[in-house]
Amino acid sequence: MIEINIKKSVKTYAGTDLIEVSASFHDLRITQITGPSGAGKTTLLKIIAGLIKPEYGKITVNKNVWLDTSTSINLEPQKRSVGFVFQDYALFPNMTVTEHLHYGSGDTQYIDRLIRMGRLDAFRTHKPKHLSGGQQQRLAILRALATKPKLLLMDEPFSALDHVLKNNIMSELKVLFEELKITCLVVTHHPLEAAGFAEHSFELI
C-alpha cells in the first residue's frame, strides 16, 4: 500500500496554488490519476519519486517511510526503486535505443524483450532525433522498465500512440507488471479503465 499525505505550494500564471493530497494507492495494481490541467498530477508523481520535496508531507510504501517532513526523512530517488515515464520523454540525445536500456540493465535477454514489446527492433541503433514522437514515447516507457522498478510512475505515457498500438502495448505491459510485481500510477487526461488498463482511479481536484 502506498500512503500519501502531502501539501505543496506551486507557482502558476495566476499566483500560487496549494496542492493537497491525502490518498492510498493499492499495491501491485494499476491506478489512473485524473483531474483538470493544473491540478498537480505531474507534481504528485515527482514528489512520490523524490524529485520534488513538499513543504509538508509523509509518504509510506508498504510501511517503509520514504518521506516524513516532520522527522526530516527524505529518501533519495535512487533508493526508491521507482521508474518514471516523463511526459516530455527526457531521453538522452547521445544514446541509441539499445544504449538507453543498457543504461538501466545488463540483462540482455530482458532488454531484447522490451525492445520487441516496444516495436523498436528495427531502430536499435537509432538516437532519439531519428525516432518519431511515438517511437520516442515507447522508448521512454521501456527505459523506465529497464531497471525492473517496484513502482512505475507514468505521465501521459500513451498520448503519441495510435489506438491499435496503444491497446497492444497496454496488454503486454499488464502481463509484465504482473510478472515483475510492479505497482503503477499513471497520469492521464483520457481515462484508461475502458481500455482495460487501469484497475483503480483517483481524481485530483
- Spatially, the strands of the biggest sheet line up as 2-1-4-5-6
**Helix and strand pattern:** EEEHEEEEHHHEHEE
Tell me about the biggest sheet? Answer: 5 strands, antiparallel
Relevant CATH superfamily: P-loop containing nucleotide triphosphate hydrolases
CATH topology: Rossmann fold
Tell how many strands the DSSP assignment holds: 10
CATH architecture: 3-Layer(aba) Sandwich
CATH class membership = Alpha Beta
Q: Please report the number of helical segments.
A: 5
Structurally, the number of domains stands at 1
Low-confidence segments: none
Mass-distribution shape: globular
Helix content: 25-40%
Q: How large is the radius of gyration?
A: 17 Å
Structural class, by secondary structure, is: alpha/beta
User: In percent, how much strand structure appears in the residues?
Assistant: 25-35%
The first-to-last residue Cα distance is 22 Å
Report mean pLDDT, rounded to a whole number. 93
Features:
single chain, 205 residues, alpha/beta, Rossmann fold, 5-stranded antiparallel β-sheet, 5-stranded parallel β-sheet, 5 helices
Layout of helices and strands, plus pairs?
Layout: E1 2-12, E2 15-25, E3 30-34, H1 41-49, E4 56-61, E5 64-68, E6 73-74, E7 82-85, H2 97-102, H3 108-117, H4 133-146, E8 151-155, H5 163-180, E9 183-187, E10 200-203
Parallel strand pairs: 3-9, 3-10, 7-8, 8-9
Antiparallel strand pairs: 1-2, 1-4, 4-5, 5-6
Helix pairs in contact: 3-4
